[in-house]
Specification:
It is built from 7 helices and 10 strands. It has 3 domains: 88 residues, no CATH class; 108 residues, 2-Layer Sandwich (Tetrahydropterin Synthase, Chain A), CATH 3.30.479; 60 residues. 48% of the residues lie in helices and 21% in strands.
Length: 289
């Protein structure tokens, strides 16, 4: 693998002054040699002008948060990262690679979750190039490579978890977004490490059931929510009834036999668990009439 090493080349401002002066001096020398008809001096002045003019093609600009990958006949010679006007061998090819922080959003992928339910999912990936040599030489097109590998990682991760669940100890896509986003970032980073890319963040931008089952799954969620809510209500009502009976016995407000205790439990459960407001019935007789 080709690793990046920094080669910032020569500062260009000084040479930007020196080389034009040399070019002008060589032109004046050439004119003077032609006037004096000195063949040797004419040749030397012309050669100097050509060589100096060739050196003028060595200037290049490095912008902030940008790098230039330098190559000589296909051989990697380093990466210039220091911003400003620089000068290097004019034979170098200078490929520009941005090292700014960038992001993109994957397309909406249609996948099956762990339970086989079709869902739609998309993610936003924030990334930057940290090794310009790997980005330039390890893959054909690192931007396209990032997109393809990010979508593959997202698809693979989504199939490993259910969309939603009411079990507290089970990780799901809806309730554990932060945890799964962190795992998504790690998985994408593992795929992009060889391309010199650092993944700074990955998070879901879209998560929903597929349209063909959305209505059915909504009814299922509502039914499950009702069952879970009723279960909590019953657990709370039983606790309240138990506390009421214990409190009555402790303070000796009234002594209840088993039949009256059963009647009280039944009445309290009806009041506490009913979905509608209960209507009291006044008994003017005894419990047994």
């Amino acid at each position: 693998m080709i690793r990046e090493f920094e080669r910032n080349a020569w500062p260009g401002l000084g040479l930007l002054v020196v080389l034009p002066i040399i070019e002008l001096a060589a032109a004046a020398w050439l004119i003077r040699s032609i006037v004096h008809e000195s063949i040797l001096q004419i040749v030397l002045a012309a050669v100097l002008m050509l060589v100096n003019g060739f050196f003028l093609f060595g200037f290049f600009m490095v912008n902030p948060n940008q790098a230039r990958v330098l190559q000589l006949f296909g051989d990697y010679r380093g990466s210039a990262r220091l911003p400003g006007l620089r000068w290097a061998n004019p034979l170098y090819t200078k490929r520009t690679i941005s090292v700014r922080v960038r992001n993109f959003e994957t397309g909406k992928l249609k996948v099956n979750d762990r339970r086989g339910n079709p869902i739609e999912i998309a993610a936003i990936v924030v990334w930057k190039v940290v090794d310009t040599a790997e980005a330039a030489f390890q893959v054909d097109n690192y931007e396209n490579y990032i997109r393809v590998q990010s979508e593959a990682a997202l698809r693979n991760l989504a199939t490993g978890y259910p969309y939603d669940t009411y079990e507290a100890d089970e990780t799901n896509l809806v309730s554990h977004t932060s945890e799964i986003s962190a795992k998504l970032q790690v998985e994408i980073q593992e795929r992009l490490a060889q391309a010199g890319i650092q993944v700074l963040e990955a998070r879901f931008s879209h998560l929903a059931y597929a349209p063909e089952i959305a209505a059915a799954m909504l009814r299922r969620q509502q039914a499950a929510a009702v069952v879970a809510a009723r279960q909590k209500i019953v657990e709370g009502a039983v606790g309240m009834v138990e506390h009421a009976l214990d409190l009555l016995a402790k303070k000796q407000v009234v002594r209840l036999d088993e039949e009256r205790r059963a009647a009280m439990v039944s009445n309290l459960l009806v009041v506490l668990c009913s979905e509608h407001q209960t209507q009291p019935v006044v008994n003017t007789g005894t419990l047994y009439t």
